[in-house]
Amino acid sequence: MATHNKIDLIEFPVSSAAQLQQTKAFFSSVFDWKYTDWGDDYSDTTESGTNSGVNADGGASMPLTVIYSADLEKTKALVLKNGGKITTDTYSFPGGRRFHFTEPNGNELAVWSEQAE
């Protein structure tokens, strides 16, 4: 179960579905992690300590830290109020919604919630 305002997920970016399969195979062989596939371009695991995912959407070049929020809109307003910048507006995905932002010094993070709007 996700906890409000806590890091919930680290996503590792790859460039293609083939690279996603290669990264999954690596982590499975080295650390014995089991993955759940969510289409051809996303897989995740709860066996990596902090949840982790492999994302082949081509949008990121560095691992992405994802924080859970019980109130996505309130968290988004606080990000903006405190000098953060939205880099990807709120969108839906299987299981919830999320947005991406940078904090004042440029580090990109994402916030997700199970709530629907």
Explain what the structure shows.
It is a single chain. By secondary structure, the protein is an alpha+beta fold. The protein has two domains: about 60 residues, 2,3-Dihydroxybiphenyl 1,2-Dioxygenase, domain 1 (Roll); about 50 residues, 2,3-Dihydroxybiphenyl 1,2-Dioxygenase, domain 1 (Roll). The chain is built from two helices and eight strands; from the N terminus they run βαββββαβββ. It has an eight-stranded mixed β-sheet. The longest helix has 15 residues. About 20% of the residues are buried.
CATH topology of the largest domain: 2,3-Dihydroxybiphenyl 1,2-Dioxygenase, domain 1
Number of domains: 2
CATH class of the largest domain: Alpha Beta
Low-confidence stretches: none
Task: State the total count of DSSP E strands.
Answer: 8
Please give the order of strands in the largest beta sheet.
Answer: 2-3-4-1-5-8-7-6
CATH homologous superfamily identity of the largest domain:
2,3-Dihydroxybiphenyl 1,2-Dioxygenase, domain 1
Residue share in helix? 10-25%
SSE topology string: EHEEEEHEEE
**CATH architecture field of the largest domain:** Roll
**Outline, from the CA principal axes?**
globular
Distance between the first and last residues' Cα: 20 Å
Q: Mean pLDDT, nearest integer?
A: 92
Number of helices: 2
Class inferred from helices and paired strands: alpha+beta
> How many strands, what sense, and barrel or not for the largest sheet?
8 strands, mixed
